[in-house]
Amino acid sequence: MKIKPASIPGFLKRPDPAARAVLVYGPDRGLARERVDALTRTVVADIADPFRVTEVPAARLTEDPARLADEAAAQSLMGGRRVVRVMDAGDAFTRTLTAFLEDPPGDALVVVMAGDLGPRSSLRKLCEGADAAAALPCYADDGRALEDVIRDTVARHGMSLERDAMAFLLGHLGGDRLLTRAELEKLVTLKGEPGEITLDEASACIGDSAALGLDDLSMAVADGDDAQAQRVLDRLLKGGTGPIPVLRAVSRHFQRLHLAAGGVAAGRSPEQAVSSLKPPPIWKHKDRLTAQVRRWDGARLGQALDLLLEAEADCKSFGPPPEVVCSRVLLRLAQGARQGARTGRGRGR
C-alpha cells in the first residue's frame, strides 16, 4: 500500500495491522531514521531492547534469504511482539522481501530502510502494491513542513523566533531531518533561556555549515561555473544528498536573486538590492551575489525557476534517473549564466 503524505503522521502512530513490512525510503536519511524509530516504538517502547528489536543489513539477508523469515518468526525471550529492522536496502532486496510477503511467518513487524528509490524501483513497487506491505516516502523538509519542525523544536524549550531568524533558518536547514534537529538543539542550548531567538543569535550559531555544500553549488550555478558546479554536485550526491534537496536549494538561491532583481527593476542599485535581502547574505557572498544580479534579469530568473520546478517534477516521474535530470538542468542554468554575461542582458550595469 502507498502511504500518502497527509496520512503519514497517523500511520506512524498506528500502522495498518495488515502491513507486515513497511518500506521507509527517500533522500532525507535523517527523516527516514526518525520514522523507522517511530514505527519501532509502536511495537516496542525501548528501541534498544536487544530481545525485541533486531537490526540486520539488507545485504546479509540477500545472501541468506531464509534468515528474514527466521527473524520474523522468532519469539522474544522476554515476551512481546518483535521488530526486525532491515537497513540499507535496495532493489537487490526485492526478491527476499517478495518471498517473505507471500507467506509471512510469526507476527514481527519488518521495517525496511532504503535510500532514494525512483518510481521504477522494484522494491518500491513491491511495497506500494502489496496488501501486506506499505511504502512510506521521506523527502527533505521544505516550506511549511520545515517551518513546523523549527517552530515545534524551539517551542519545546519555551522559545520563539523573530521573523528574520525564521527566514534565515529556512534558508540554511532542511536537507536532513537529523541534521536540522541537531542544529536547532545547538541553537536553543546557546540561547540558554526562554525567549525570542534573534537573527544575530541564529546566524552566529548555525552559520553556514549546515548548507555549505549546497551554497557552493548554488553560487557556482548562478556564476556560470559549470565545472565547479559539477564537482560540487558529484560530491553532494556521493555524500548521500538527494537530487530533490539539491534542486530545492538552488531554487531558494534563485528566488533570492529574483527578489533582488525586482529591487533593481524598481530603481535600486544591485548593491542596494542585495543588501536589502532577508536574511542578509553573508559577507563573503555579497560581491558574488551582486555580480549575479547584474548577470541575471528578472525574466531570465523566472525562466530558471520554472526549469528547476520542472526538473523536480521529472525526478518524481518515470524517465531518466533523478541524478541525470538534476545534473542536466544545473549545467543548463550555468551555461545560461555565461551567456547572460556575454550578451549583457543583466540589469544595473
Automatic annotation (TrEMBL):
E.C. numbers: 2.7.7.7
Entry coiled-coil feature ranges: none
Chloroplast keyword on record: no
Keyword line: DNA replication, DNA-directed DNA polymerase, Nucleotidyltransferase, Transferase
Reactions mediated catalytically: DNA(n) + a 2'-deoxyribonucleoside 5'-triphosphate = DNA(n+1) + diphosphate
GO molecular function: DNA binding; DNA-directed DNA polymerase activity
UniProt keyword Transferase present: yes
GO biological process, alphabetically ordered: DNA-templated DNA replication
GO cellular component, one term: DNA polymerase III complex
PANTHER family: DNA POLYMERASE III SUBUNIT DELTA (PTHR34388)
Family matches, as NCBIfam families: holA
Family from the record: Belongs to the DNA polymerase HolA subunit family.
Protein's name in the database: DNA-directed DNA polymerase
Species this chain originates from: Roseospira navarrensis
